[in-house]
Specification:
The chain is built from four helices and six strands. The chain is an alpha+beta fold and 154 residues long. The chain has a single domain (27-152), classed as Nuclear Transport Factor 2, Chain: A, CATH 3.10.450.50. A six-stranded mixed β-sheet has the order 2-1-6-5-4-3, covered by helices on one side. The longest helix is centred in the first third of the chain and has 23 residues, at 2-24. The protein is globular and about 45 Å long.
Length: 154
């Protein structure tokens, strides 16, 4: 009986995955790659509201040597504080290289190496390098970030 139930669950999961890919014209991997590119663009644009919308209500951000940031409201506040303008025009460019993307419906683990260049037009640009990992959860047809962490290579 247990095996029949497991077989039914697997069949439903595989059917829904195929239906999702065909309905959108994209696989989950393609959707997640597009979402990661969107996340980088929003970070470059310092758009805290749109960036926060990519997180689930229970999401957590955890950076080394810092307390975890729990929940969407706290995450939005965090990004607003990070993106506070210093009064000078700043240009940010973030380049990424995918290290891994593992999709096991309804979850996906996405790891990237990043290079962030920040220039204000005065003096040399700051360059930061590191890696970050996001855990995504698919709810219906929408992927949301439930965990986000990064590590500097510096």
């Amino acid at each position: 009986m247990k095996y029949k139930m497991l077989a039914v669950i697997l069949l439903v999961a595989m059917t829904s995955l195929s239906a999702y890919a065909s309905a959108t014209g994209q696989t989950d991997n393609q959707v997640l790659q597009n979402l990661m590119a969107k996340m980088m663009r929003l970070n470059e644009q310092e758009n805290s509201k749109a960036l926060t919308a990519m997180y689930s209500a229970e999401a957590v951000i955890k950076y080394p040597d810092e307390e975890p940031i729990h929940g969407k409201q706290s995450i939005e506040k965090f990004y607003e504080e990070v993106f506070i303008s210093t009064g000078e025009e700043v240009v940010k460019k973030i380049e990424t290289e995918t290290l891994f993307l593992n999709v096991e419906i309804p979850f996906a683990f996405y790891g990237v190496r990043y290079k962030e260049t920040i220039s204000s037009g005065q003096g040399p640009a700051e360059v930061h390098r590191g890696r970050f990992v996001t855990l995504w959860h698919r709810v219906g047809e929408k992927w949301l970030i439930v965990f986000d962490t990064s590590y500097s290579d510096e």
